[in-house]
Amino acid sequence: MAYETIVEDDIDILVVGSGLGGSGAAWEARFWGQNKKIVIAEKANIDRSGAVAQGLYAINCYMGTRWGENNPEDHVRYARIDLMGLVREDLLFDMARHVDSTVHQFEEWGLPIMKDPKTGRYLREGRWQIMIHGESYKPIVAEAAKKSADKVFNRICVTHLLMDDSRENRVAGAVGFNVRTGNYHVFKSKTVICGAGGASNIFKPRSVGEGSGRTWYAPWSSRVRLWAHDRSRREDDADGKPHRAGAFQGRLRPGRCLFPAPEDLYAKLPGRRV
Amino acid sequence: MPTFVYMTRCDGCGHCVDICPSDIMHIDKTYRRAYNIEPSMCWECYSCVKACPQNAIDVRGYADFAPLGHSVRVIRDEEKGTIAWKIKYRNGTEKNFLSPITTKPWGRRSRSSPTFPAEQGNARQPAAVQRAESGSAWMTAVCAPFSQPVSS
After folding, report:
1. What is the ipTM of this complex?
2. B72-106 pLDDT, tens per residue?
3. Is B140 in CB contact (< 8 Å) with chain A?
């Protein structure tokens, strides 16, 4: 079987991975750069890809500033306490002050958000959470992304970034392959937005006997937890000292990653074994 | 537990192949029916179940909390803009849920060209600052602290 090499040149903005984040980035890129060439490379089908493929039934961060419910600084305070001070406050603030307009955009695109019939405000299930009918969350945002991008490459798994020959430490695009045909794809781009997140199949899910852990948020639960676990293992290997497991307590599950750590390692780790 | 296909209902149209995020729904070359080639890689995201025009794909719940004998069926109707779930318990209890999936017709929900022209303003400025300058008074107020360097 012969594989082709397919080159896409003169891209201004390449979005690698079009989950909810990459799709949003593509739309935002078009918003600010209407004459730019924007290309999306996505491992799966953009309509149902990433962690939101199956839909979500809440948006977990909405300030409600227009109704005086919260201000961005309230959220910074909350997140700082919640994460024991390990935060970049400037980034938190920046996200918090933009999140409302993003949610309003989703509603404009057709995302059904539950509202209080009397006040017209979004219904909340917590201080920061609002309730949505989010089954088609991803198709809705994907539609905006598809309209924004010049080209969408589905089923292209990007594996490496291309580096610029003439300028040191400068990314000049990305390369990948088509998961169906095996064709090699080269994207030459001035800018690359890397949106390849946690759902990239780095670890192997086990589809049996872990229902309790996966009823909520299927891809994230099965991968981010593994990542946390795997990182703890590597830190442990590196310095030979027991891992500081504080933040990951209760998340250490033996036998859930591709190369499980030896059983006795778990015995040494602080934290609850599940 | 992963998806499985009712062979008598499947007509091999390939919608599931098209949509599966893990690329594990394939068409059997001999029988021209879809099947899950790698059940252990299945996320149970229900994308193929919803995409199937013949309703030929089903998912078994996890054996450890959803014993055999139950069923979860779903019908997603893009024209009506609804999704209907039918949950049947092993003891015969049945629950039905109907939710909207969108408030706008497909294909018209998002603008193809943004209202805010990118060429206005200084392109070298960060997007947030630009928006603050041209946006509401509230935005300007909120952005103001960031005209100063952030002390660490």
Report:
1. 0.73
2. 899 999 999 999 999 888 888 999 999 999 998 88
3. no
Q: Are strands A156-163 and A58-59 parallel, antiparallel or unpaired?
A: unpaired
Shortest CA distance from B82: residue in chain A: A135
Q: SS3 of B106, please?
A: coil
pLDDT class for B115, splitting at 50, 70, 90? low
CB A65 within 8 A of CB A71: yes
Q: Is B138 a catalytic residue?
A: no
Chain B residues with CB-CB distance to A107 below 8 A: 103
Per DSSP bridges, beta strands A5-16 and A38-41 are parallel
Question: Whose structure tokens read 């891992």?
Answer: A243
d(CA B30, CA A238): 51
Largest CA distance in chain B: 68
Query: Nearest Cβ partner of A135 from B39, B101, B117?
Result: B101
Token digits of residue A212: 């309790």
Transcribe A12-65 into DSSP letters.
Answer: EEEEE--SHHHHHHHHHHHHH-TTS-EEEE-SS-GGG-STTTT--SEES----G
Across chain A, which has 274 residues, the per-10-residue mean pLDDT values are 91 94 93 92 92 89 94 94 90 93 92 92 93 94 93 94 91 94 96 77 47 43 37 40 39 41 52 46
Residues from chain A that touch B142, judged by Cβ atoms under 8 A, are 72, 97
Best A13, A20, A35, A45 member to test B by mutation, with max B CBs in 10 Å, is: A45
What CA–CA distance (Å, rounded) separates A70 from A53?
A: 29
Dihedral sign for Cα B19, B20, B23, B24, please: negative
From the list B99, B110, B112, the residue facing A135 with the nearest CB is B99
Best of B43, B49, B133, B136 to mutate (most A CBs within 10 Å, chain A): B43
Q: How confident is the model at residue B40 (pLDDT cuts 50, 70, 90)?
A: confident
